[in-house]
Write a structure and sequence with these properties.
Blueprint (H helix, E strand, L loop, with lengths): L1 H47 L20 E13 L5 E14 L4 E14 L2 E2 L3 E15 L2 E16 L2 E17 L4 E16 L5 E2 L4 E12 L2 E9 L2 E11 L1
Antiparallel strand pairs: 1-2, 1-12, 2-3, 3-4, 3-5, 5-6, 6-7, 7-8, 8-9, 8-10, 10-11, 11-12
């Protein structure tokens, strides 16, 4: 009788110990996710304090499955130093339409409105468009890498002087799925920007290289919201929302 009682007591104690370890592990995992999220947000806010405005690379990995569509709303502020000390600034309101060619290739187009400022001169909001593609080139565990190529074009006028702005970006980056709802991405890009005035006085970018980084939060299975920054060669803050169909 005594031995049986001792065995049951030991067994009960073992179960309590196992349950305690399991609960501690769960708390650790939750705290680990919170620490990761807080750390990433801190980095983003520190970087935001060092930049002013710019265009959008987005998650460098194709995120739309084969045969599916994604619509992205982008609010984008953009600031880039050009040659001869010229400063080019822009605000863009764009809709981006992405189609999944395959799990590793997405193509996309942009359409919307933009305005530009060159020095003290600024344009009205006029139609703008863009196009590009994303290709996955590396995949291991929950870290993926990809390449983005895109073009953006805008035509406007400053007090009757017509001009065109063309931007071509080639970017390489990676993303990391920190949790089921939180994703971060980063990379570097080469950006070629040209302002072409009909009456002469063309300008090119002063520094073609920049770094970009962003975060995305999954609201539900069909909606993400995110923020992106670009810095060094140019400056940017972009707010975006993805809607999958």
């Amino acid at each position: 009788m005594s031995k049986t009682f001792e065995k049951e007591e030991v067994s009960f104690s073992g179960r309590l110990l196992a349950r305690g370890v399991y609960n501690m592990r769960g708390v650790y995992q939750m705290n680990k996710k919170k620490i990761t999220l807080i750390s990433m947000l801190s980095v983003i806010f520190i970087l935001l304090a060092t930049v002013s405005t710019a265009g959008t690379i987005g998650n460098p990995l194709p995120g739309v499955p084969e045969g599916r569509w994604r619509v992205t709303a982008e609010l984008d502020n953009w600031d880039k130093d050009m040659d001869e000390g010229t400063d080019l600034e822009s605000t863009r309101l764009l809709a981006k339409f992405t189609y999944g060619i395959s799990g590793k290739v997405n193509i996309f187009g942009r359409i919307g409105f933009a305005e530009f400022e060159v020095g003290s001169a600024d344009s009205d909001y006029e139609p703008a468009w863009g196009a590009g593609a994303k290709i996955k080139v590396y995949e291991k565990d929950n870290i993926d890498a990809g390449i983005v190529a895109q073009i953006f074009h805008f035509s406007g006028d400053f007090s009757g002087a017509d001009f065109d702005v063309t931007e071509i970006d080639i970017a390489c980056g990676a993303n990391h799925q920190f949790t089921d709802v939180f994703l971060g991405y980063f990379g570097f890009s080469i950006s070629m920007v040209e302002i072409d005035f009909d009456n002469g006085g063309d300008h090119d970018e002063d520094d073609p290289f920049f770094f970009f980084g962003g975060i995305e939060f999954k609201v539900n299975n069909a909606t993400d919201i995110g923020l992106e920054i670009r810095t060094f060669g140019e400056s940017s803050i972009t707010l975006l929302a993805n809607f999958d169909f």
